[in-house]
Amino acid sequence: MVRKGPATAELGAGTTADADGGPGPLGFVTWDRTGPSGGNTYDRELVAALRAAGTDVVVHALPGSWPDPDGADLDRLAAALAAQPVSLVDGIVASGAPGPVEAAVAAGRSVVVLVHMAAADEVGLAAPDAARREETEGRALRAASAVVATSRTAADDLAARHGLRDVRVARPGARRARLATGSTPPCLLAVANLTPTKDPLTLVRALHEVADLEWTAVLVGSPDVDPGYAEAVRREAAGLGERVRLAGALVGDALEAEWSASDLLVLTSRTETFGMVVLEALAHGVPAVVGAGTGAVEALTRGAPRGTQGRRAGAAPGLTGPGTPGAAVPTGNPRPLAEVLRRWLTDPSLRDEWRRAALDSRARLPGWDVTAAVVSQTLP
Q1: Which of 182, 187, 210, 215 is the most exposed place for a label (fewest CB within 10 A)?
Q2: Looking at the DSSP assignment, which residues form a beta bridge with residue 90?
Q3: Comparing C-alpha atoms, which of 204, 212, 176 is closest to residue 188?
Q4: For 116-161, how does the pLDDT look when each residue is reduced to its tens digit (9 = 90+)?
Q5: CA pair distance 344, 284, nearest whole angstrom
Q6: Helix, strand, coil % in the chain, rounded to nearest 5
Q7: Using alpha carbons only, what angle is made at residue 354 by residues 350 and 357, rounded to the nearest 5 degrees?
């Protein structure tokens, strides 16, 4: 039902490129936000990889207040699902729209939902809003023809919370990048929007605890998603002077320059289904510190040799096994993060070990063609 052949142009919702009467292209339905985020990067890379493999894809980038749509938003989604016989729908859209998903499947169309993160897991949601998102997401996913998650962590979570069977896993791929050269003193890099979910405040507070050591830090991420929280980050960072720079959202050469100067990625997300930025770090040969118990640990070990996920003998809390390019620390607490940063900053042998492990992982990272192949297997 999905046409193989030259890629169609990107079209608006409700438009079809199926004029010859043959099997239609794959409809890829997402929102119209294009700012830097892991989900948006995944979607863009997946579409490119599907097209490179010969799948005809038409993209419907829907305006609206996703994942909390109004009536007009739902109508646009229904039109997009009617435009092709098979649709792959980003979970940010599908999770708030069980009605159109149910109607499309009942009409004989195939709707595969791609979930980056459970809709109710956004930190700071009011309890009624979280409950509503949980209910609508469950309805949409149970109605879908198939569900694909972007990590094993996310797949297991979705299966448990919504009673799903056979959630497929299509982990992100990676593009090989130029090796980071690093900085003197060492540069810590965070790449995440300034939101409670990503929790850069924990990083800044940990930096206060290692202020006696030599380092610099750069926080790359949009302050516009949650301006009040971003202002709290700015106030906290001001006490560290010019050692901490809030760079805003960056892409392209500007972001690449930050990667080149970095020595360690720090991802302090309270919840993370995978953490594509960790793969980006490894692609640059940069190790990472991530949140224990989050999907970012899955990303950190993505390219590690099998059998290397155990603890280092005699290691400080939070340090992972030999061959793993970094560490996992408890979320939401600056103290254990500061302890690991202090160990890394004062132990050259540990820095060398993590760097070697990152370089080894870099050579093992799968590309987006692997991701596209897994997704293609879920399509009718």
Answers
A1: 182
A2: 114
A3: 204
A4: 988 777 777 889 988 999 999 999 999 999 999 998 988 999 999 9
A5: 19
A6: 40, 15, 40
A7: 140
d(CA 75, CA 73): 5
Tens digits of residue pLDDT in 258-270: 999 999 999 999 9
Q: Nearest-5° angle of CA 120, CA 35, CA 49?
A: 90
Q: Tell me the two tokens of residue 65.
A: 């207040």
Dihedral, CA of residue 315, residue 321, residue 324 and residue 327, to nearest 10: -40
> Cα separation of 272 and 295, whole Å?
5
Both tokens assigned to 269: 């997300």
The phi, psi pair for 210, rounded to 5°, reads -120, 25
C-alpha distances (whole Å) from 240 to each of 175, 210, 212 are 34, 11, 11
* Angle separating helix axes 38-52 and 276-283, nearest 10 degrees: 70
Amino acid identity of residue 347, one-letter, is D
- Yes or no: say if 3 and 25 are a contact pair by the CB < 8 Å rule: yes
Q: What is the largest CA-CA distance in the chain?
A: 69
Whether cis (ω within 30° of 0) applies to the bond prior to 67 is: yes
